[in-house]
Write a structure and sequence with these properties.
globular; aminotransferase; Aspartate Aminotransferase, domain 2; Valine--pyruvate transaminase; 420 residues; 12 helices; 2 domains; PyrdxlP-dep_Trfase; six-stranded mixed beta sheet; transferase
Length: 420
Amino acid sequence: MKLSQFGQQLTSDSGIVNLMADLGNALNVNPNLLFLGGGNPAKVDEFELLVSQLLSEIAQDPQALHKLVGVYQSPQGAEDFIQQLSHYFQQHCAWQVADKNIAITNGSQSAFFILINMLAGQAADATQHKHFLFPLMPEYLGYSDQGVADDYFVGAKPQIEEIGPDLFKYKIDFDNLHIDDKVAAICVSRPTNPTGNMITDDELNQLSDLAKQHNIPLIIDCAYGEPFPGIVYQSSNYQWQDHHILVLSLSKLGLPATRTGIVVAHPDLIQRVVKVNTIMSLANGNLGPELMTRMLAQGKVKSICKDMLLPFYQRKRDVLMNALRNELQGLPYRIHQPEGAFFLWLWLKDLPISSADLYQRLKQQGVLVMDGSPFFFALDDAWQHKQECLRLSYCQSDEVIESAAKIIGQEVKALYSKQA
């Protein structure tokens, strides 16, 4: 069988496919693995109890049940869901958006496939090949294989600020950030997957100004951030603007299996997203929108984020931070300042082997982490730092987190001892 260019591009090995294969193996096939990999949210019992109650309400209402399983959504998405979302954004975020600014997709991954291939690649007039610019690498590896051809992404190397004895922070190097007419859009995740970095309000405003000057959109992936699930450990003040495209998700709220993405953008772009999504998917699934509509209508979303999820993940973060500090004491490590999401980004300075090899060694020891190198996908240079980082999720039990940290510490100590 001979594949098309599209077929070859999307069936080759990729970081996101490997990530999901590892996640599926750990969660469904080999649950004895100490799992600090993947992006699956934690099991939050209080949230799942709420979901159970909502499902019971639906099951006991024949009309609601039929709407859930027996009716296609409209192309833009379920009308009542979109109305609840626009009201929430207006009331709680002070965004000047309406129903026409919102489209629903089958997950934010699908939304990015649409956006990347709508904006980047060969221009419609065939005069240029356009790119997405990632101004702060490393970035979410799930973007990296979404283009239907090669050469869709360019990235910028960060400045590194070392903080205290064992922390650091990536910052945008605006002096070396180059934007030309080949850049189709600027894209960031906030908080950043994989590092837990929160691009500052000032950095975001500068990116917004640059995007506006060049008449291109600023795309903000809010999968872990505001307005939901709100896994952000410091205050921020985001202001919506017409040239912004926000991509939200219900996954990290605790509903990853519902595959529900939300795009907030200018109405002209929304209509284009709707057309592509309809061709790709016909219609969106109903479960996520139905559950979220009820949570919004009952006024539960803000308290879910602030009172249920944020304290849960903040405590888990501290468990992993303390465990790593205990196990890596005396070694040349730093942890990215944890400002959001549910990952720690571990930098092992002058690591004697590559992070990819360390990932394999830890896997053999029964610990699954994420090799950091694929997250630098849009940087072509041979920067040693790209081979020195791991992404660690803290969504498991305290016992799993502490046991995994112990094995990581033992393996890393052995490597540095051999080097010495």
